[in-house]
Every structure is written in C-alpha cells, then in structure tokens.
Amino acid sequence: MQLLHRPGVRLVLTSGTLLFVELVLLRWIPANVTYIGFFSNFLLMASFLGIGIGILLGRRFANIAWSPFPALLLLVVGLILGAKLDVQLRASDEIFFGLAESHAADVNFAVLPLVFVLVAAVMGALALPLGSLLRAMPPLRAYALDIAGSIAGIALFTGLAVLSSQPPVWFGVLAILLSALALARRLTRFSLINAAFVLATCGLVLGATASGDLWSPYYRITVQRLAGSDTTILVNGIPHQAMHGVRTADAVSEPFYDQIYQWFPGRTFGRALVVGAGSGTDTAYALANKVRAVDAVEIDPRILELGEREHPDHPYSDPRVHEYVDDGRAFLRSSSERYDLIVFALPDSLTLVSTSANVRLESFLFTREAFASARDHLTPDGVFVLYNYYRQPWLLSKITGMLADVFQTKPLVRRYDAAIGSAAVLAASAAVLPVSGQASLASVSEPPQAATDDWPFLYLRDRAIASYYVIALAFVLFVAGLGAVLAARATTVPLAAFSPHFFLLGAAFLLLETRSLTIFSLLFGTTWTVNAMAFAAILTSVLLAIAVNAVTTPPRAILYSGLGVALLSAYLLPPSVLLFDPAWLRYLAAAVIAFAPVFFANLVFTASFKDTKTADMAFASNLIGAMVGGVLEYAALVTGYQALLIVVAAIYAAAYIAGSRVRLFADRRLVAAEPA
Asked: In a 3-state reduction of DSSP, which class is residue 456?
C-alpha cells in the first residue's frame, strides 16, 4: 500500500489512467453518436485541452477531498445513452456515408460542441493531481514516468481490443484503476460517494450493452435477423451490409452486384480480387458467375467472421476463395498476382483511421495512385470495377475522371435510381470495353480535382474547409481561450506563467505526429495494427530522446538545425518514394525518414523541459498547444499533408525564437532556468 503513495508510482498510475480513459471515450462515444466518428479528432483535441486546463486548476484544487471526475463521467455516459444524441450533416460538398440510412435525430448542431466540452471537463477533472506530481521530481524524470504511464495505458486498452472485449469490461477495468488512484490518494469520507458514481456508470454501460453486439477494432456491430428478409449488419447503429443470397428476391434491390457479369455474358473470369469483401455477397456473386479463384480482402475481422458463419450462400466455405484480413491498398502493394477482375465492393467506412487525422479507413483506396496500382495488377484484358451509392453527381464525375486519367480510356458507367442517392457501377480497362444498351461511356468533362495520396479526400469536392468545420474549430479555440483564462483566474496563476515556447512546441508536434500517422497509413495500410505500430514508434522516439538528454544536452542550435534538416528531407522525399518492397525494409526507411523529425522534435522538447522550473505550467502549455495543432491539421483539406511540413517548420522556428533569451517574446520560465 505504501508503494502507491510514492509520487513516481502515482504519476505513472495517473498518466496511465488518463490515457486509458481517453481511449475509452474515443472508442465508445463515436459508437453511440454516429457522426462523432467522422470528428473523433475533436475528441482528441478536447482531451488535450482538458488535461492542460486540469493541470492549471491543479495548482489550487489538486488536494480537494472530493474528485469531480466520477460524477462528470456518470453525466457524460448518462447523456450519451439517454439523450440519443446524433449529428445529421446535410452537406453538398462533402459526403458522410450513413446519413441517409439513419434518421435517429433531427438536425442538431449543438452535439459536437456539447460533447467537446463534456470530454474536456472529464479529462480535466481526472488531471487535477497531475501538475503537483510533475513538480514533485526533476522535470525529465517526471516526463519519463508520464510517458511510461501513457504507454501502459495504451497497452492495456490495446490488449482489451485484441480480445474483442465490450464496454462493460472497459469501464470495469477503469473502475479498478480509479480504485487504485483512490488508495494512492488515501481514502476519505467522499470515497464511498465516488465509488457509487463509478458503479452507477458501470451499471448504465452494462444495461445499454446489447447482448448480441460485437466490437471490432473499428465498429460496434449489430446483427439484425428478421424473418423473411436478409440478415443485416449495422455498424455504430446504422445499416452497413446485407447478406444477400444470389438467388433471393432481395438481391434484385441492389442489381449492381451482378452488373459486370451481365456486361460480359460469355466471359469467364479466371481470377478475381474483391476488396471490401465484407460478409460475402460480392464473393458469392463471383462464384455464381463461375469465377475460378477469388481473393477476398476485408479490413474488419469480425464482419468477415459473420460472413463465414451466416451468409446464406456460404461463399467463404468454397475452396476457390482465399480470405485476407487486410487493408485493400496494402494488399495490392504486397501482392504480385495478376487478376482478370478487380472489384472495389462498396468499401465505404463510417469512421476515421485515427483520432488525429481526417483520413477515413478507405481514403487511400480511392486515390489516383491506388487506381494505378489496381491497373497494374490486371491482366492485359482485365477489368477494374467499382460500385456504390454515390449520393452526389460530382462524386461520380470525380471517380470517372480519375479512371479516365489512369486507364487513358473512358470508363463504362451504369446508373441506378436509389432511395439514398444515385447508385452506379463503373468499369475500366486498358483494353476496349464493349458498350451495351445497359451502359454508356462516362462523360469526363471538367470533373472535380482528383484525390491523391497527398490529398486523399475522395468525398470532398473542392480543396476547401467547409463552413461547419470553420464554425466548430472557432468554437474549439474560443473554449480553449476562455478555459485557460478562467483557470488562471481561479488559481491566481498569472497568464505570464503560460509558456509560449512550450505552447508552440505542442502545436508543431501534434501536426508532425498527424502527418507521420497518415504516412504510415499510406505505406502499411489503415488497419488498427498499423496505428499501433506508428504509436509505438512515436513513443519509442520519446523515450530515446529522454535518454539522450539525461546523458547530455546538445546545444539548442544544433538540435533545431537537426530538426530542420530532418523536416527538409521528409519534404523533399515524398511518401511515394518509400512504396517499395520488402515490407521490413520499407518500415525501416519509413521509420528513419518519417520519424527522424519526430525524434528531433522530442529532443528539442526534452531539452527545454529538462531546464524548466515549472514543469506543470510547461506541460499544460504544451498540451493546449497540441489542441491548437489539431485545429491547424484541418489545413490539410486545402494543402494536402506534405505541405503541413512547411507549417511545422514555421512553428518550430517560432518556438526557437520564443525560447531564446535575446528575443522579445522569450519564454520567461525557460530563460530563468537557463545558466547565465
């Protein structure tokens, strides 16, 4: 028990619990509030802001007997479950798949700001003791322990994800962590009240968890089995897939599954690749049309398992089918096979790749470079097919333009009327495709700008930041500014103690981390395992930087020069030059080129943090800066991700100025800590 009272142990435990709570909220809230899944980076920004303000408030309230965290957590869980919140975006310039399929709530633009404030409040309440713990030991040691706790929290939640555990387990583990924190702070008469709040929260989550739900690394999956109808898979509460039997009447409602075979009635495709194979309907149609071998690629292992068990045609039991749980772009990169037919089978997702980027699971599957990769895997007369509900005419025009550019021929297109927007099948090939009464050559006059690996935004019509993003981001900045001012007044901490140097370091590093995660998703796929690898590389670089600065601290001019060279190298060597095999060599090269700036950035931060006399203020400033970096990340919607390196370099240059004793905007705390 005495071990828990040691500041170092409490710091590790507090940091680990903070990361675990953050990951639980980032995973659980989007599963219950559908469109938060498209804005989950707002939840990450809320977490940064909350922890930063919590550290500031900790100067006055760290030792209060009653922690507000359990009550706030119960409020958030109760509101999410009880109010049935949702976000209904009706935008003509950007597409959010799932909008037409779900009418759970009316238009409610207050949801995102409300959830943002609540998450910030929850994280802030839990972070109250963090500042005093950071001040209780030398800054570099405190930072190392904070990172160790963060790694432990990430590892714990990742382990639960691997086991496909459900929310009651997550909140149960959280209750255990909170009990350990209570013991570390010594029990008070309010401990039983806090315990009651935690138990009530666990009870709400347990009661709301449907017994038949599955949790994949990406979704909350619900299976609807209705008599006389196809089995339907819902993800995060909205319809996502139906297990059509090839010979059933319901299959007629989605005729695009069979369209390619009707276009070529006398042709037998020897080998086919189905990307986005899902629960198996596309594969079943391929088998029914005498395709001799099918490679079925699906990113979600739980959906694939459902298809194995429950699809009425049992396509995955056929010996002609080979299953792969992988990202479609990554599979194309690693495969040397040539196919007579490649099908991109409705691979639209309902979530982002990670909480720190605007890239969706399928974004790198629908770029000009991805279409070229599919073309290169076709036999000389092979056919590339896409079909989906495209919702907006400009999206269909955008895809046809990309296909025409890549294949240098006009693609075939067949349109269908659908309740949720225009559906269509497109086919492209290097060979001449016949035009039948069912199809026409697509018009490609002045299509919207193509999606590329650097600007992977297929569902965005133009390079622009939509008004609803601007309003939401302005709100985030307003809340951040107001929260920092109120926290400073509540704790009588002067705003002069706020560190512009560490604020800028936080903003730049979040942008750099986002760009690095995006590059890793491009190079290795958008699976959750790739994200885990990327985070592991980032955290390892942090620990390595701490170790270097613990032994010796190079002059800051050298550190910033090394960072500048690393940023310039990453800018001059775009990700496309790293698209080579074998995979282990690609990983090594990517780790060096993409993460060299991350390593130098951590050297810069740890060198400054080592010298600060106010570790809590520096850390709080850094986290609030990271939140602002999350706002700046939306510039990629206009510039693409490679250009973010220019913004990163400019912010680090400003951070160097803010940390220099001879400059007007010198960081007072940092300057005071430096030797004369």
From this structure: coil
Asked whether the predicted pLDDT for residue 40 surpasses 70, the reply is: no
Q: Is there a single domain that holds both residue 558 and residue 635?
A: yes
Around Cβ 632, how many Cβ atoms within 10 Å? 18
Strand partners, 215: 220
Burial call 263-301: b when 16+ CB within 10 Å, e when fewer:
bbeeeebebbbbbbbbbbbbbbbbbbbebebbbbbbbbe
Query: Does residue 185 carry a pLDDT above 90?
Result: no
Assigned domain for 227 exists: no
Give the whole-angstrom CA distance, residue 293 versus residue 318. 10
Does the predicted model carry a pTM greater than 0.85? yes
Say yes or no: 336 and 398 in one domain. Answer: yes
The reported pLDDT for the residue numbered 12 is: 94
Which tokens hold the place of 229? 């109808």
Give the range of the structural domain holding residue 428, as residue numbers without chain letter: 241-348+368-441
Q: Are residues 198 and 255 in the same domain?
A: no
**Secondary structure letter of residue 96 according to DSSP:** -
Q: Kindly state whether residue 221 falls inside one of the protein's structural domains.
A: no
Q: Are residues 378 and 512 in the same domain?
A: no
Residue 336 has pLDDT above 70, yes or no: yes
If we measure between CA atoms, which residue out of 351, 413, 389, 457 comes closest to residue 94? 457
Q: Rounded CA gap, 318 and 132, in Å?
A: 62
The reply to whether 288 and 173 lie within a common domain is no
CB atoms within 10 A of CB 564: 16
Helix (H, G, I), strand (E, B) or coil at 188: coil
Q: Does 403 lie in the same domain as 299?
A: yes
Q: Which two tokens stand for residue 590?
A: 């990517």
414 and 344, same domain (yes or no): yes
Helix, strand, coil abundance in the chain, percent, nearest 5: 60, 10, 30
Q: Which helix (H) or strand (E) holds 382?
A: strand 378-389
pLDDT greater than 50 at residue 399: yes
- Chain centroid offset of residue 486 CA: 31
Strands 293-298 vs 271-275: parallel, antiparallel or unpaired: parallel
The strand pair at 440-441 and 423-428 is best described as: unpaired
Q: Which has more confidence, 261 or 489?
A: 261
φ, ψ at 389 (rounded to 5°)? -90, 105
Q: Which tokens belong to 409? A: 């021929």
Q: Tens digits of per-residue pLDDT, 431-459? A: 877 766 666 666 666 788 999 999 998 88
Report the pLDDT value the prediction gives residue 106, as an integer from 0 to 100: 38
Query: Into how many domains does the chain fold?
Result: 2
Q: So what's the pLDDT on residue 92?
A: 47
The H helix count followed by the E strand count for the chain is 23, 12
Assess whether 167 and 249 both reside in one domain: no
Q: Which of 9-18, 305-314, 382-391, 656-665 has the lowest mean pLDDT?
A: 656-665
Closest listed residue to residue 329, CA positions, set 499, 478, 458, 190: 458
Q: The tokens of 399 are what?
A: 């895809």
User: Is 357 part of any domain?
Assistant: no
- Are the C-beta atoms of 658 and 535 separated by less than 8 Å? no
CB of 314 within 8 A of CB of 358?
no
User: DSSP secondary-structure letter at 635?
Assistant: G
| For range 462-471, the mean pLDDT | 84
Give the domain CATH number at 330: 3.40.50.150
